[in-house]
Structure prediction request, 196 residues.
Amino acid sequence: MMSLSPVMKDHVARLSEEMLDLEHDKRKLTKGLRLAHDDCCQHKIYYAYLLKKQELFVKHIRAQREELYNAVMSGDATRIAKIEVKMIASNKKAYEIQLQIPTRLKHFTEAIKREQEYEEAICSIRHRMILKSEEIHKYRPCEIFLCDHCRGKTEKRLCKQTRRRYKEEVEGMYEEAKQSQSMMSRVFSKMRQMSF
Prediction:
């Protein structure tokens, strides 16, 4: 590993501190994102609940209209009065729900925007962290094989070293085989000469 000048050591130390600050900010934003996501889910659930409730009241009002029509056709005045009272109460409740829906929808969209802002902020911090880590690794490469950033470079270097060693071993074995073959051919030629 190359030794760094004091200025570069200070620069790397400053980069490391900035990385720690970014990590701290990322943790805060991740916590905020989790809270925003929970808030968004709650708004979504409540908005769906209001829509379902409104749909039920609409069905209920339609049934009451049908009942009112039947009561009018039969000419029962007391039944008509009771149904009208029920319809007025149902219409008031449906109206209250109808008033809540736009505000709930507004809160729901605000929660979604907040969640997206947190996600964008986290992405920008991750990008800055990657740039800082690359700059740190440029001046001070890791000696650990498991480092995510250096793994590719280390694997390539080890692969090249292994190939070179293998090639040297194969060439050495080939040279030995050549030498032993030439030696065997000399021995055989001497044996042939001796036999004649």
Remarks:
- The chain has a mean pLDDT of 81.
- The radius of gyration is 41 Å.
